[in-house]
Specification:
About 11% of the residues have low confidence. The protein contains 2 helices and 10 strands. The longest helix is centred in the N-terminal third of the chain and has 23 residues. It is an alpha+beta fold. The chain has one domain: Lipocalin. Strands 1-2-3-4-5-6-7-8-9-10 form a 10-stranded antiparallel beta barrel. A hairpin with a 2-residue loop joins β8 and β9. The protein is globular, with a radius of gyration of 20 Å.
Length: 168
Amino acid sequence: MKKLGSMFLFSLALIFSAWPLAAQKSANPGYEKLKTLVGEWEGKTGDGTRIQVSYQLVSNGTALLETLQPSEKETMLTLYVPDGARVVVTHYCSAGNQPRMRTMAIAATPAKLDFVFVGGTNLTSSAGHMHRLVVAFEDSNHFAQTWTWQEKGQDKAETFRFARKSTS
């Protein structure tokens, strides 16, 4: 009986020691898919302008930081974070505002993520801002982003296509 009690306590100790690791792992398939973008990418806008983007995990893997550098324009940052079964994004725009967008709940590994506007900071009611973002995963080395800019009730969409930079 004493041996059985010792094994029970040992089993509980193993379970509780692994608990923090389980809590850190995301159960969000959308965020897990976004994490596959970690690295350096190059692409083009719809009019052929070159654009660079990089992704890195920050805050102990709980956030994904996107650094976007359009050719000869200001660098913009976007932060992706899981929120339950959704993914939330805050875009730090060169226009000086910070729109927040989120996906619907995600249950399976997505082929694309569709972020819709939920609010923002430094926005006036008529200010132009990023209102929607769609990230489409083509394969492990290619993806696209479609940004929808909304200003005075009018939407304008632009698609950027990216390829992973080779590591050689």
